[in-house]
């Protein structure tokens, strides 16, 4: 008997979103198939994209082998961002760590001004994340939104504790929100519903939290998988957003990555590959070698 | 539908304090309020009872019996306290509960026979909670057969499928459906047995103000599948109206949602739409979140 591979067709579509304007516009999402299910009916018009991460201050505690590709530019975020672009990043991810009250508590105005300068100095779109301190982010992120008005940045993390103030500023100034919840499908949906009361779902990106290999990655994997299944198969309107996997920072915190260059690249690379398979639409990496490796693998398929 | 009033429960601070202080008034007020609200049984949930178990249980039973004629459901895992309570019950009580665990089979089930009372038997086993319909069936068939051998007839057995929280990430909604299905096939499996559920466990972990609608909706769904009784809050007036079939349009909408019929939400009142959304969440038609009524 002849074998016929089963072909599935789903009617749910992940929202296609654009980050950045004009020549910098970058599209993510838009798929109506599960990740890498190219044998099914449907397509993914926008293959996954990759951002490289920079900080708004000189990194503290980064191992030499992570610092090495950027060591001439880490004191200057604009040059650092340009270098990322040179390495082939589809976007630059700026993390405003210095604003954290536990780091430098640097003022919102200063952080926002830097975000604007970086955004204007690169030819790819910018993603801006606050320090993760929800109270400080509620000051910093609205200021970033305001100063960069109209640039259509992706701004986050928008969390349960600050979504109203941060969300409204992002919306008012024409950006997109990256909504972060701590590794839980029900909480993820709840935040999207609550944000959705005033914020268009078409401008939300899901950050489900990306744990590193060996540090809970399988939770992130199952969660992303579930988000895609619900969006594409079940057509749950509140999970049909593209996913951002902010994984580089998590990977380079691990003892294994700190210890040794090769091990670090593999740690970040394997985490990235796994989360790609789970359905991440844009991945945030730290090391340009990982970027190169993953891009090569993606070209093979 | 038989309603077993759940409000005398040691988890409530007022109740545990009243029991410790032997404050009859607090306990009797709760018993009277539930009786007036239309409960059929009064549940006395005293927990594991480590100290003065016998004396405490007997005090509680007598105190409640002085305030109401209703039969009691004695809810403790401690067999000594259970027996002490059974001894002083006037109306035929409900032993709540036994299970397929070895301890329970050896210590609780013989008490049901000895005192000729009704008994709740849950699907729990030594291995824990059977997660799907098939395993729940296996467990309950075994335990009921064991009870029958002791001389307890099916008619005295109230089977409890064990309700779990619907909000548990990912799996809760699946469990809610499993219990619905289990209840629907019970009559064919074990002719003559009755059934009961601890209804409020469905909404454990859900914000307080959202808990009642989950209980109300799930009860209507379980009732449709021939549930016999529920341990629940009779002081929730809307719940009791639904139990008595006094809001037929809501009951009908919940049934439609159970059947997966498409329902035009904008044409409904907010209250009706909330019931439909709740039924859809319980059926797993939409993913649960604490904001399920808001979308």
Describe the structure.
The complex is a heterodimer of chains A (301) and B (295). By secondary structure, chain A is α/β, with parallel strands linked by helices. Chain A has one domain (17-300): Dihydropteroate synthase-like (TIM Barrel). Chain A has 11 helices and 10 strands. An 8-stranded parallel β-sheet of chain A has the order 8-7-6-5-4-3-10-9. A two-stranded antiparallel ribbon of chain A has the order 1-2. In chain A, helix 4 (134-147) packs parallel to helix 5 (163-172). The model of chain A has no long low-confidence stretch (mean pLDDT 97). Chain B is α/β, with parallel strands linked by helices and 295 residues long. Chain B has helices spanning 13-21, 24-37, 53-65, 79-88, 102-107, 109-114, 133-150, 172-189, 211-224, 237-243, 248-258, 270-282, and strands spanning 2-9, 41-47, 72-76, 94-100, 118-125, 157-160, 194-198, 229-232. An 8-stranded parallel β-barrel of chain B has the order 1-2-3-4-5-6-7-8, surrounded by 6 helices. In chain B, helix 7 packs across helix 8 and helix 9 (211-224) runs parallel beside helix 10. Chain B starts with a strand and ends in a 13-residue tail after the last helix. The mean pLDDT of chain B is 96. The A-B interface holds A 184-190, 193-194, 196-197, 226, 230, 234, 236-239 and B 167, 169-170, 286-291, 294-295.
Distance between the termini of chain B: 32 Å
Low-confidence stretches of chain A: none
* CATH structural fold name of chain B: TIM Barrel
CATH architecture of chain A: Alpha-Beta Barrel
- The CATH class of chain A turns out to be Alpha Beta
Oligomer: heterodimer
Strand order of the largest sheet of chain B: 1-2-3-4-5-6-7-8
Q: Which CATH top level class of chain B fits? A: Alpha Beta
Secondary structure: number of strands of chain B? 8
Main interface pair?
Answer: A-B, 18 and 11 residues
Secondary-structure element order of chain A, as H and E? EEEHHEHEHEHEHEHEHHHEH
- How many separate structural domains of chain A? 1
Largest sheet of chain A: 8 strands, parallel
What would you call the structural class of chain B? alpha/beta
From the N-terminal CA to the C-terminal CA of chain A, the straight-line distance is: 30 Å
| Biggest sheet, spatial arrangement of strands of chain A | 8-7-6-5-4-3-10-9
User: Which stretches of chain B of 5+ consecutive residues score pLDDT under 50?
Assistant: none
Report strand % of chain A. 5-15%
Cα radius of gyration of chain B in angstroms: 19 Å
């Amino acid at each position: 008997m002849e074998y016929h591979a089963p072909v599935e067709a789903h009617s749910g579509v992940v929202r296609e979103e654009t980050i950045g304007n004009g020549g910098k516009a970058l599209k993510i999402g838009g798929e109506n198939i599960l990740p890498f299910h190219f044998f099914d009916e449907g397509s993914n018009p926008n293959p996954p994209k990759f951002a490289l991460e920079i900080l708004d201050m000189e990194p503290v505690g980064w191992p030499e082998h992570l610092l090495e590709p950027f060591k001439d530019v880490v004191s200057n975020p604009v040059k650092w961002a340009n270098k990322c672009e040179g390495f082939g990043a589809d976007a630059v991810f700026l993390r405003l760590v210095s604003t954290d009250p536990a780091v430098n508590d640097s003022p919102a105005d200063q952080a926002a001004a830097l975000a604007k300068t970086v955004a204007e100095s690169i030819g790819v779109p910018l993603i801006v994340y606050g320090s993760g301190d929800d109270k400080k982010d509620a000051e910093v992120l609205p200021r970033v939104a305001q100063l960069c008005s109209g640039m259509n940045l992706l701004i986050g993390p928008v969390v349960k504790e600050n979504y109203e103030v941060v969300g409204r500023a992002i919306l008012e100034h024409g950006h997109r929100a990256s909504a972060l919840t701590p590794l839980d499908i029900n909480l993820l949906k709840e935040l999207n519903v609550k944000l959705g009361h005033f914020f268009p779902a078409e401008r939300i990106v899901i950050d489900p939290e990306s744990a590193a290999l060996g540090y809970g990655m399988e939770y992130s994997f199952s969660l992303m998988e579930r988000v895609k299944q619900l969006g594409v198969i079940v057509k749950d309107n509140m999970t049909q957003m593209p996913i951002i996997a902010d994984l580089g920072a998590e990977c380079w915190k691990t003892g294994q990555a700190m210890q040794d260059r090769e091990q670090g690249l593999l740690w970040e690379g394997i985490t990235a590959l796994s989360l790609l398979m789970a359905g991440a639409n844009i991945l945030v990496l730290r090391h340009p070698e990982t970027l190169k490796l993953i891009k090569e693998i993606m070209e093979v398929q | 539908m038989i309603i077993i009033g759940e409000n005398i429960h040691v988890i409530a601070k007022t109740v545990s304090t009243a029991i410790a202080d032997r404050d009859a008034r607090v306990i009797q007020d709760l018993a009277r309020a539930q009786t007036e609200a239309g409960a059929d049984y009064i549940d006395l949930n005293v927990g594991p009872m480590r100290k003065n178990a016998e004396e405490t249980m007997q005090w509680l039973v007598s105190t409640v019996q002085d305030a109401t004629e209703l039969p009691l459901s004695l809810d403790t895992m401690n067999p000594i306290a259970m027996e002490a309570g059974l001894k002083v019950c006037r109306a035929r009580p409900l032993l709540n509960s036994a299970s397929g665990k070895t301890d329970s089979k050896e210590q609780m089930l013989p008490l049901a026979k000895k005192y000729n009372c009704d008994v709740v038997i849950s699907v729990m086993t030594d291995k824990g909670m059977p997660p799907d319909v098939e395993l729940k069936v296996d467990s309950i068939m075994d335990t009921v057969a064991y009870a029958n051998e002791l001389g307890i007839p099916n008619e005295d057995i109230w089977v409890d499928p064990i309700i779990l929280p619907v909000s548990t990430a990912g799996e809760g909604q699946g469990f809610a459906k499993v219990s619905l299905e289990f209840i629907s096939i019970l009559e064919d499996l074990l002719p003559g047995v009755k059934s009961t559920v601890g209804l409020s466990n469905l909404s454990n972990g859900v914000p307080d103000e959202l808990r009642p609608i989950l209980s109300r909706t799930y009860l209507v769904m379980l009732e449709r599948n021939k549930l016999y009784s529920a341990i629940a809050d009779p002081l929730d007036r809307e719940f009791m109206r639904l139990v008595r079939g006094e809001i037929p349009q809501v009951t009908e909408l919940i049934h439609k949602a159970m059947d997966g019929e498409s329902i035009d939400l904008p044409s409904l009142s907010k209250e009706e739409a909330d019931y439909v959304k709740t039924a859809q969440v319980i059926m797993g038609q939409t993913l649960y979140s604490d904001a399920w009524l808001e979308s």
